[in-house]
Amino acid sequence: MLAPLRRLIDSPVQFILAITAVRILWHLLAPVGMAGDESYYWMWGQHWDWGYYSKPPFIGWFFGLIDHVPLPKTWFFKSCAALFSAGSLYYLYRTFVVTTDNRKMAQYGLLAIALSPANLLFSSILTIDSPLMFFWAGAMYFTAKLTFKSAKTPDFLALLVFLALGHMTKQMMMFQIVIIILCALTLNRNLLKKPLFWLTLILSFASLIPPILWNANNQWITFQHTGHHFESASPALTKSLSRLGELLATLLFLVSPILFIQLFPAISSSIKRLIPNLKSDKATSFFFLYGGLGLLVMLGLIFRQRVNANWPAVYLLGGLGITLIWAFRTPLRTQWFKRGLYLAGTLSLILMTLLPLLEPLAGPLAEKGIKPQRRGWQGYPTLVSQTYDLLPADVTQIAFSGHRFTASQFAYHGKIIATSETPLKSVHLWNGSSHIRNQFDFFPTPHVGEQIAIIVEQKKASSSDQIPKALQECLSEVTEVGSFPIHFAREYPKYKIYLAKEVVKWPISPAKLSH
């Protein structure tokens, strides 16, 4: 695999353009349809606001902007994810060059990231993680320039832009401020004496003023949601080890087994190497602060709660830098590192081959007991088309009793298939409580006095497929009109569809109660 790439990889920009073009063409096969998070964030973009339930506003604003581009929506959204990934690859390569001053080593670092299954997936799913990785990598590069080279005003300005956009993307970006200060403290104290350094860090938080003001008027809901991520789980050793095994197994595949296994001795070696003097190996120190330290914190966090696989994603970039430097210190480690590239590329090729085959092979696989994932992309386009065909054309609103992802998928695919003969239907999500549960609670509620379709999600055979009593009391003359499974190869989840002649009332949205 590496031999045909050697000539191309000697021009890293051409390599990045080539692999990005391949991925954009691959997305024409629609191997990765809209994931639940993607359709949910797309709905945010249909309702522009200064802030949103769980995240700062960048992803909602971005979806709202690109939704107006007159290109096939799903393909274009996936292409945007691939372009964000291309930017990440470019800045990572430049960071490796600046810190190691070794272009050949940097090229291998670029290969390690580009060929990994994780990078393929980040190039395929337009959630907060694709832009976050881009802004994180960009800010890391300009921090490296300021730390290892002479500090120039354009580099401070570029760092400010990447930090500000990163803050608007995900709360995780704020941790990079701490890393930058640690880099200055340990590797280049002259930065601490520059007013422009502190001004850059402080001004980057100005981008958070709009969502903070929005939160002040909306029960500080984003802060509450973020806090829920750090609620402790069972402290039992067996549970902790189970969570640890789950995370490590996922990362083992996403990074590729050999490279991931090399990460741990690399981190251990870097700690021993840096304890006497952090400046003894500035490149290793830089990547330890940007990766090794965060990964160790994430592994420690496992013993109090579950850690999602995407949480340590940004730290894996720095972790790879540690691994790269460590591996190239001896021929044997370098040999295994290169084998890791082969394995990473092979896993990515397997993914690229199998994903387009999932839909046509769904039937035969189901007969063998292998069924499409519960909340995956398979089935939603057909399910939405079937539901639209079943409902009268004059029904213009749908309310769900189920998961926000399902409601979002119906909204997204409904807009795609909507025509003058099949008008677009507004989609709403029944809450049934006095607490804000998701962004749907900020969206407009159904119109009273008009017809409405009610869709009840039945997760499994033992779950109810009846309209909740409180919702039933809001409707008049309800009749059952049909039922569909999420996918022809699965019996559950199943969606029972009702039609109400009129919405007689609708409770005030929990998001409006504070106003």
Provide structural commentary.
This protein has 515 residues and is an alpha/beta fold. Helices cover 57% and strands 7% of the residues. It is built from 22 helices and five strands. It has a five-stranded mixed beta sheet with strand order 2-1-3-5-4, with helices on one face.
The secondary structure category is alpha/beta
Number of strands: 5
Order of helices and strands: HHHHHHHHHHHHHHHHHHHHEHEEHEE
Biggest sheet features: 5 strands, mixed
Strand content: 5-15%
- Note the quaternary state here: single chain
Order of strands side by side in the largest beta sheet?
A: 2-1-3-5-4
Mean of all residue-level pLDDT scores: 92
The end-to-end span amounts to 60 Å
Set out the fold topology:
Blueprint (H helix, E strand, L loop, with lengths): L1 H8 L2 H15 L9 H11 L11 H9 L6 H28 L2 H12 L2 H6 L6 H20 L4 H15 L6 H14 L7 H10 L4 H8 L4 H8 L8 H19 L1 H18 L7 H20 L11 H15 L3 H24 L7 H6 L12 H11 L6 E5 L2 H14 L8 E4 L22 E7 L10 H4 L2 E11 L8 E10 L12
Parallel strand pairs: 1-2, 1-3
Antiparallel strand pairs: 3-5, 4-5
